[in-house]
Design goal:
The protein has about 140 residues and is α+β, with helices and mostly antiparallel strands. Helix content is about 25%, strand content about 35%.
């Protein structure tokens, strides 16, 4: 009985990992979580994600288009990260920062599929008085809050 209880506790604690690694278990885990008042979430794994083909350019007087692709190198689904956009000056010093959650970027997805991609286009309004003429470059950072 003790071994069975310990096994069930391990399954409960690692439910996200089990759902990611064995997707056929996810429906059963979701059903169990309805009874146990828990949630099966996508597995976080920032080390499996890379940002590729990012562009940031002006499309209007104070409107900019941010386009990027996040690739998942893992063989299982990985939770979508938040994105930090940092505008920089000529010395690479931060002039302005903005954090975008996946919901703010208009996605309904929770995760990037196995070896899949998440392609995003976001429009950002930036007033020149907020950054002055100092903003000359940008950086993108993906992270989990």
């Amino acid at each position: 009985m003790l071994l069975l209880g310990l096994s069930l506790q391990g399954l409960y604690r690692e439910r996200d990992r089990w759902a990611a690694l064995l997707p056929e278990l996810k429906p059963a885990l979701v059903s169990a979580c309805e009874v146990l008042d828990c949630r099966v979430s996508s597995l976080q794994g920032i080390e499996n994600l890379t940002t590729e083909s990012a562009t940031f350019h002006q499309v209007g007087q104070d409107t900019f288009a941010l386009r990027f692709v996040v690739k998942n190198k893992a063989r299982h689904a990985v939770a979508l990260p938040s994105i930090e956009l940092t505008l920089t000056d000529l010395a690479e010093q931060a002039v302005m920062r903005r954090i975008f959650t996946p919901a703010e970027l208009g996605t309904l997805l929770e995760s990037v599929g196995p070896t899949g991609e998440w392609s995003v286009t976001a429009y950002v309004r930036i007033r020149e008085e907020a950054t002055g003429a100092r903003a000359q470059g940008y950086r993108l950072l993906i992270f989990y809050p």
